[in-house]
Amino acid sequence: MIIAIDGPAASGKGTLGKRLAHHYGYRHLDTGVIYRAVAYALMQSGHDLNDEAAAVQAALELDPEKFGNPALKTQKAGEGASIVSAIPRVREVLVNFQRQFAADPPGAVLDGRDIGTVICPHADVKIFVVADPKVRARRRTMEARARGEDADEAAVLADILQRDERDKNRPIAPLKPAPDAYLLDNSQLDIEGGVRAAIDIIEAVRAGRSRG
Ligand SMILES: Nc1ncnc2c1ncn2[C@@H]1O[C@H](COP(=O)(O)OP(=O)(O)OP(=O)(O)O)[C@@H](O)[C@H]1O
Ligand SMILES: Nc1ccn([C@@H]2O[C@H](COP(=O)(O)O)[C@@H](O)[C@H]2O)c(=O)n1
């Protein structure tokens, strides 16, 4: 089974994806980390984030062993990711890696912006996770502060809104729900509540399939 999770910045996709993968015994890929890794490589080598040739080269040289680098978690890497991810050739280079991950047994959960629409349009279940921007900014700020960073909530909110705008309005693979995605608003839910709501959706889809 392939579970596709999409949604805007800091909506809880990664947390949910990880928890669902654990619940079902599947593998999990946070696809945002791929674009963050490409942006980080450019930043490290001193290239402009809009340098298409350098970005494509970084995408071709992607090393999943480096996905755990904490530097990829920063706001700067996220902002950089939203710039390089709008370059069509970069996205093209990264499609196969994601599709291969999704296809390998026993099943996979992928989260990102275009999983249900472009990467896995035939996913068994698609969930589009949303939450009020202010709630997302608060959670992200608390997360950064817990890591010992001096995060300013207003700046975090501005970054989230800017990234959402860029991601929604780019011509290629824009952030949007697939027509057959289930909407999950977790603004009023805690993590456990969000996971339970997602499992209810997945089980309802599975039950419907086995009946029909
Ligand atoms: N339902 C929830 N209730 C409360 N906090 C949550 C919930 N879901 C996620 N969080 C918290 O919100 C923050 C953002 O979650 P997460 O990193 O999963 O979002 P994301 O959508 O994957 O972000 P990104 O855009 O960076 O990929 C984390 O601190 C996480 O613990
Ligand atoms: N499938 C995806 C995933 C991510 N992006 C871009 O990367 C940025 C960072 O993603 P996070 O999920 O780690 O916040 C994001 O703002 C998108 O621009 C993407 O395009 N497609």
From TrEMBL:
**Start and end of every Cytidylate kinase domain?**
3-202
Q: Which CDD domains match?
A: CMPK (cd02020)
Name the Enzyme Commission number(s) assigned to this protein.
2.7.4.25
Mainly localized where? cytoplasm
State the compartments where it is located: Cytoplasm
| Keywords assigned by UniProt, alphabetized | ATP-binding, Cytoplasm, Kinase, Nucleotide-binding, Transferase
What GO terms are given for molecular function?
kinase activity
Q: Which residues bind ATP?
A: G7, P8, A9, A10, S11, G12, K13, G14, T15
Q: What class of enzyme is it?
A: transferase
Reactions catalysed according to its record: CMP + ATP = CDP + ADP; dCMP + ATP = dCDP + ADP
Pfam families on file? Cytidylate_kin
NCBIfam families reported in the protein's UniProt record: cmk
User: Which family does the similarity line name?
Assistant: Belongs to the cytidylate kinase family. Type 1 subfamily.
| Protein name according to UniProt | Cytidylate kinase
Please name the taxonomic classification of the source.
Bacteria, Pseudomonadati, Pseudomonadota, Alphaproteobacteria, Hyphomicrobiales
